[in-house]
């Protein structure tokens, strides 16, 4: 027995050693802070930022636990409006990215193998220069066009920054398609459009979902682009959260907004995963 | 007029002619096979018939109409690909319905014909499964059904049995023959497996280096190979260098390396002094104990140098006194005896004077 039992024990140990550190890392730096934030969202803000003490200190100062932050959130339409606006911008950005990225990803996937790596490098090349510098550059471009400080400018900036996150997963998906499937479709009577619509597109759905999630979610939390390129009316959730922490120094309120955003994102991710399983999960 | 006419077709890749001046006719309802080793041009020829490649010279006609300029999707020709190329995101029924939908058939007709075709390939219960849930043989059947459902004038099959294991391949061969008879569609089959070609085809074209070496019925290709290449490629055969001593009206006298004088059937191309090869199939060679008196003119003594017991037959390699190695088949038809001779046994090999053939260079 011992030999086999030994191997299983050894492989179990290996598995723990390998998966242990990342697991611990996520526990300490993701789950724990998350829980702290949940706790913070039920507290009162401290006088000069931070959190108020749990037990009453000086007279007149609020202490203990409260659901006040959530009451404010659900009590005023403005927050729902900003959330809706943010989701709208995120969805529009994802859609424009998809439409722009698909031909690029397809072109890379169908180019000669030895050229693909180079083209992929070109896609990620913009990351080599500083993000803020690139956004300020857009100010110079959009200013003379009279588009600066508008919703349009925000979406342009968002699309520009997130386009590679759509191209890469799409390319990774399209590159795996067996070209003989297109031959088969053509052989069986499908013209160019039918070959795309009936074969390439449905098989690329997992890539579309992955790319959309990679664009949609970061856009929701993005505050730099609306701040630089947008007007005061173009604030998104990200700006609101940033302002709560750094502006009004209301940490509990900022925590509550973060949690609401996380829940909303999880809802969208869950929906998209469900769609993917139903639609194109078999590629 | 033949259904498919291939007229002096040539296809070059750079300096290499993958298909070189090939002409052949395929008749309506025929099971026609393009047979040859890899790189002989058979797949290139198939792709030109399907329309994925264009000939550099020559013409391909279907029903008398030149196919040049007609893209693959408009040719009444469908292909069963070696890897099956089933659409992974579609069910079996959706895969089979694909060519009908592309042809714009009405919905009721599509569902009726998909059902009929599923029955034809015995997959009635698999209609709503996805390709990844099927076995190799079932995928093969779906690919066949998809190729046949819209009743093409011609079905091209590119090594469709290559991915199956031996037992399944034999089953599918029988099924292919039956299927082709039932639907009456003309098949053009490509393979490098000579046994498969012999078993399935009405006619075979043996290709080498882009040229047709021989085109005939299976029994004639096997029994009367035209040259050394065809003889060697189809089945197993003893090939020995030989020179013609005398070309008489009814027979040839040959001087065969390692054997000496051999009497062989007459060949039109043979003339005294010509060099070539003497070819004889192992099953035509009789192996007997050396003590037995010679009954045939072509009789040579030797020793068993090795043997392979295959089950139904045993293959003996006999080294003759002159140094030739002759392969002989002995059927294991007598019960209870696994073998007749041992390695090192003194034996004789012999064959009738009308067996074997002289092949020119």
Number of strands of chain B: 20
Taken together, the total number of domains of chain B comes to 2
> What percent of the residues of chain A sit in helical stretches (DSSP H or I)?
over 70%
What's the arrangement of strands in the largest beta sheet of chain B?
6-7-8-3-9-10
What is the CATH architecture term of the largest domain in chain B? Answer: 3-Layer(aba) Sandwich
What does this structure look like?
The complex is a heterodimer of chains A (283) and B (361). Helices cover 75% and strands 0% of the residues of chain A. The model of chain A has no long low-confidence stretch (mean pLDDT 88). With 283 residues, chain A is mainly alpha-helical. The longest helix of chain A has 40 residues, at 2-41. Chain A is globular, with a radius of gyration of 24 Å. With 361 residues, chain B is α+β, with helices and mostly antiparallel strands. Chain B has a six-stranded mixed sheet with strand order 6-7-8-3-9-10, with helices on both faces. A five-stranded antiparallel sheet of chain B has the order 13-12-11-14-20. In chain B, strands 15-19-16-17-18 form a five-stranded antiparallel sheet, with no helix packed on it. In chain B, strand 9 (203-208) and strand 10 form a beta hairpin. In chain B, helix 2 (92-102) runs parallel beside helix 4. The two termini of chain B are 35 Å apart.
């Amino acid at each position: 027995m011992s030999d086999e039992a030994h191997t299983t024990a050894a492989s179990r140990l290996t598995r723990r050693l390998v998966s242990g550190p990342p697991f611990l890392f996520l526990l300490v730096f993701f789950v724990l802070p998350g829980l702290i934030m949940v706790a913070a969202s039920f507290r009162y803000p401290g006088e000069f930022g931070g959190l108020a003490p749990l037990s009453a200190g000086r007279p007149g100062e609020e202490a203990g636990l409260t659901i006040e932050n959530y009451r404010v959130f659900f009590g005023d339409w403005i927050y729902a409006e900003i959330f809706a606006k943010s989701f709208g911008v995120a969805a529009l950005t994802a859609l424009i990215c998809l439409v722009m990225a698909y031909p690029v990803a397809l072109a890379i996937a169908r180019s000669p193998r030895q050229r693909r790596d180079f083209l992929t490098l070109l896609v990620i090349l913009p990351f080599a220069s500083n993000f803020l510098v690139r956004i300020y550059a857009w100010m110079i471009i959009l200013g003379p066009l009279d588009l600066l400080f508008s919703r349009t400018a925000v979406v342009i900036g968002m699309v520009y920054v997130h386009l590679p996150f759509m191209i890469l997963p799409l390319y990774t998906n399209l590159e795996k398609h067996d070209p003989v499937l297109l031959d088969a479709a053509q052989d069986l009577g499908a013209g160019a459009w039918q070959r795309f619509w009936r074969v390439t597109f449905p098989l690329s759905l997992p890539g579309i979902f992955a790319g959309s999630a990679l664009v949609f979610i970061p856009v929701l939390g993005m505050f730099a682009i609306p701040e630089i390129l947008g007007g005061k009316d173009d604030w998104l959730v990200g700006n609101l959260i940033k302002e709560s922490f750094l502006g009004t120094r209301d940490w509990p309120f900022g925590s509550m907004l973060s949690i609401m955003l996380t829940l909303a994102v999880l809802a969208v991710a869950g929906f998209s995963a469900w769609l993917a399983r139903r639609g194109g999960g078999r590629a | 007029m033949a259904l498919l006419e291939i007229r002096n077709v040539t296809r070059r890749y750079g300096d290499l002619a993958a298909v070189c001046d090939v002409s052949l006719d395929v008749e309506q309802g025929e099971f026609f096979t393009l047979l040859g080793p890899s790189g002989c041009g058979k797949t290139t020829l198939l792709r030109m018939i399907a329309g994925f490649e264009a000939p550099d010279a020559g013409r391909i006609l279907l029903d008398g109409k030149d196919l040049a300029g007609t893209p693959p999707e408009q040719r009444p020709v469908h292909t069963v690909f070696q890897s099956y190329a089933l659409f992974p995101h579609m069910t079996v029924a959706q895969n089979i319905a694909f060519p009908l939908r592309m042809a714009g058939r009405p919905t009721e007709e599509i569902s009726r014909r998909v059902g009929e075709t599923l029955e034809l390939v015995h997959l009635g219960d698999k209609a709503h499964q996805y390709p990844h849930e099927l076995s190799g043989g079932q995928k093969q059947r779906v690919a066949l059904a998809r190729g046949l459902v819209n009743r093409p004038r011609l079905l091209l099959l590119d090594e469709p049995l290559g991915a199956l294991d031996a037992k399944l391949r034999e089953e599918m061969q029988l099924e292919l023959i039956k299927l082709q008879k039932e639907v009456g569609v003309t098949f053009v089959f490509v393979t490098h497996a000579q046994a498969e070609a012999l078993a399935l085809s009405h006619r075979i074209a043996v290709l080498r280096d882009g040229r047709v070496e021989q085109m005939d019925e299976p029994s004639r290709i096997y029994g009367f190979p035209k040259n050394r290449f065809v003889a060697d490629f189809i089945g197993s055969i003893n090939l020995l260098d030989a020179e013609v001593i005398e070309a008489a009206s009814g027979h040839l006298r040959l001087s065969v390396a390692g054997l000496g004088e051999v009497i062989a059937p007459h060949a039109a191309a043979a003339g005294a002094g010509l060099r070539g090869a003497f070819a004889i199939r192992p099953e035509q060679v009789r192996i007997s104990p050396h003590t037995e008196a010679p009954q045939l003119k072509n009789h040579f003594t030797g020793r068993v140098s090795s043997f392979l017991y295959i089950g139904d037959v045993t293959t003996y390699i006999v080294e003759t006194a002159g140094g030739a190695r002759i392969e002989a088949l002995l059927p294991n038809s007598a019960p209870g005896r696994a073998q007749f001779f041992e390695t090192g046994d003194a034996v004789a090999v012999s064959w009738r004077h009308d067996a074997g053939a002289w092949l020119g260079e």
